Amino acid sequence: MDFYLGIDFGTTGARSTAIDSEGIIHSEVEYNFESGDRASAWQNALSAVIDRIPAAIRRQVRAIALDGTSSTVLLCDTEGIPMCEPILYNDARGAAVMDRVRDLAPPNHTVLSATSSLAKLLWWLESEGGHGGTAPTVFLHQADWLGFLLHGKLGISDYHNALKLGFDVDTLCYPSWLIEGIAGAATPQLPSVVAPGTPVAKVRKEMADRFGFPPDCMVCAGTTDSIAAFLASGVNSPGEAVTSLGSTLAVKLLSNARVDDARYGIYSHRFTPLCRGGAPVPALGAPVPALADDLWLVGGASNTGGAVLRHFFTDAELENLSRQIDPNRESSLDYYPLLNKGDRFPINDPNLQPKLEPRPADSVEFLHGLLESIARIEARGYQLLQELGATPLTKVYTAGGGAKNSVWSAMRQRYLKVPVETPIHTAAAYGSALLAMRGVRGS
Predict the structure, then answer these.
(1) Given this model, what pLDDT does residue 443 score?
(2) Count of CB atoms within 10 A of residue 187's CB?
(3) For residue 224, which of 207, 204, 246, 208 has the smallest C-alpha distance?
(4) CA-CA-CA-CA torsion for 288, 115, 68, 270, nearest 10 degrees?
(5) pLDDT in tens, 285-335
(6) pLDDT tens track for 124-149
(7) Which listed residue, 141, 170, 311, 433, has the most CB atoms within 10 A of its CB?
(8) How many angstroms separate the first and last alpha carbons of the chain?
(9) Do 242 and 397 form a contact (C-beta atoms < 8 A)?
(10) What is the DSSP string of 4-56?
């Protein structure tokens, strides 16, 4: 029996899911990141979530795909060794170089955000010692580097991860304004970009020997964690959407029309539904194919979400207190729940201040206000997408830990005014496993 392995790297840890050709799950593993150096913690987590998969399954894994948090980036030397601490997806240090980003990019472009991959690259280039002097370096996203650890081909990305670097998903190449604008002796090599799911290379021999993978096991180009969660849901009809309620809030609406507006942190990913057949996957380095029936995943990601809730409550408290909330009663509390200043969507402002006051003495009322405020942010996000031309919203599926909270779902449905449901599969690792299967089976 063939198995397909998906590995998801989220905010707090890594997860792996192994499925068969029918999509049935045979193994699920979760591992929380260790403290200390981020790159080392990721590498240790990658080994842990693989090592804990039953050996009998590992011996029959045909393909692997990984996802990582969007705009989490790092600089490596030409051997793939990180030159400095990676920068996380929600790090807004790029605010210091936004004048430079605005000089380079077209108006309202996706990269016009302090947390974009391009802003982080320019920050590295303009900060003292941030780019390692004149030594050759390679700029990678989290999923790119993790894939490299498995297949050994340095400098390969996918067009989901590369979007916020400036990769043009219409022409499927880097635009001239980007290449010419960052040219210089100290400029890192940008990754080559292929379609998500493209077979990149077989697992390195040392990795195959260590974990017991078959020698012909293929590592495929990955995606972002929120798109992997979207793939897991099985959504393929325009108007349907997936909200990922994990540590942060990410919304993705499947649309016939593309919408991009940096004022609100809105961007569109090119998307080929898993249920559709298409052109054969390209050879590495060949032009990325664009299918005539490709759709667009329109959305954005906010820094609000479960991390704020867990800052105030344990999981047990969240479950117990939620049961005491009437989801049909509107809370009078109006918060903007953030742990630190700055948000990306639907307000794109690195200096936006958290609003968590007044805090009532009653914990039930406080949680009610937090949940409802996050629901309002989600609803405003979908409203903006439709105002700017996306396909009208018809249904929202929920992924992430928030999908388990039925009270919150009822509250959100009141604001969204469409059905809110939980799909059979919600884990991003499951979506990455499906992507791996499509990569080697071509369907």
Answers:
(1) 45
(2) 16
(3) 246
(4) -30
(5) 444 444 446 899 999 999 999 999 999 999 999 999 999 999 999 999 999
(6) 998 854 555 567 899 999 999 999 99
(7) 433
(8) 18
(9) yes
(10) EEEEEE-SSEEEEEEE-TT--EEEEEEEEPPSS-HHHHHHHHHHHHHHTS-HH
The DSSP code for 203 is: P
Burial class (CB in 10 A: 0-12, 13-18, 19+), 380: middle
CA distances from 294 to 42, 291, 376, 404, 430 (A): 33, 5, 30, 31, 22
- Strand ranges (DSSP E) for 272-317? 295-302
User: What size, in residues, is the chain?
Assistant: 443
CB 33 within 8 A of CB 13: yes
Rounded Cα gap, residues 143 and 212, in angstroms: 22
Running DSSP on this structure, what letter comes out for residue 146?
Answer: H
Beta bridge partners of 30: 15
pLDDT at 284 over 50: no
Q: Which tokens in the block code for residue 230?
A: 């979207």
**297 with 254: CB under 8 angstroms?**
yes
Contact 204, 170 (CB under 8 A): no
pLDDT digits (tens, 9 = 90+) for 338-386: 999 999 999 999 899 999 999 999 999 999 999 999 999 999 999 999 9
Cα separation, 25 vs 425, in Å, equals 10
Assess contact for 344 and 302: CB atoms under 8 A.
yes
| H helix or E strand, kind and range, residue 139 | strand 138-141
Give how far the C-alpha of residue 133 lies from the chain's centroid of Cα atoms, to the nearest Å: 30
Residue 422 neighbours by CB distance under 10 Å: 15
pTM: 0.85
**Cα dihedral 50/56/58/61 (nearest 10):** -150
Residue 345: phi, psi to the nearest 5?
Answer: -165, 140
Spatial contact of 65 and 223, defined as CB atoms under 8 Å apart: yes
Q: What is the pLDDT of residue 274?
A: 66
Q: How many helices (H) and strands (E) does the chain have?
A: 13, 16
8 Å CB contact between 434 and 232: yes
